[in-house]
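pinging the channel bc i need a second pair of eyes. not urgent but kinda urgent?? the chain im working w is below, pasted from the shared doc
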Amino acid sequence: MSRSFIALFIAVFLMAGTGAPAFAAQKAKATPAPRAELLGKEAMQKLEKQGEASEQNQILAALVGDWDYDLNFWSKKGAPAQMSTGYTTNKMIFNNRFLSLETSVPLNIGGQNIPYNAIGYLGYDRIKKAFTSVWLDDNHTSMTTGTGQYDKKNNALEQKGKLMFPLLDKERPYRSEIAFTSSDTYKVTIYLTGSAGQEYKAVEIDFRRKN
C-alpha cells in the first residue's frame, strides 16, 4: 500500500470522525424519538406483550422438520382416491411467532401429474385468540386463509375458512384438521362442502418424519 494512499485514508477517517458541525446537528435533529417516548411506557409494554410468541405456538413446534407424505385426493364424495407423494419443510420463524411450511408435490389429478409448490404460515394470533393461517401456491393467484382452535382432547388443530376453486371461479368453504398422531407422524385432513351443501373428505395427507 503506497504512502499517498495511507495518507488519504487517514485524512478521510479524520474528516469522518470530526464531521461538519452543521451537518451533525441536522442529523441529530432528524433522529426520531424512541418508540417509548412516542407511545408511552404502558402502550409500549402492551405492544411488546402482544408481539411475543404465545405459549400456544409451542404446539406447532411438533411440526418442525423435514417430512415425506402421501396425499389422497377425492374430487367429489364417493369418487375414487387419487394418490400423490411429496415432501415438506417446516420451521419456526420470527422468534417462534409463526410456523413456515414449504411443500412440493406432483399432484395426481385425473391421472395427470401437475407440479404443485406452495408456502404457508401458521401461528397463534393473541388479539383474535385463535390460530390463523395463510396458504399460497403456484397454481393460481388466490390465497387461502383459515382460523381455528386447538382441541386438547383430540390433540388436533382445527380450522375453518374459504378457498378459491379456479375452475369454478368461486370460493368454497372448507374445514381442516391437523392431528398430532406421534412425534414422527401427523395427519392433515381437509373437508369441502359440495354443491348440494354436504361436507365430504376431499384431502387426506399422512406425514412421516425424514430420517
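so Residues 185 and 208 are 5 Å apart (CA to CA). and Residues 1-26 have pLDDT under 50 and may be disordered. — does that match what u expected or am i reading it wrong
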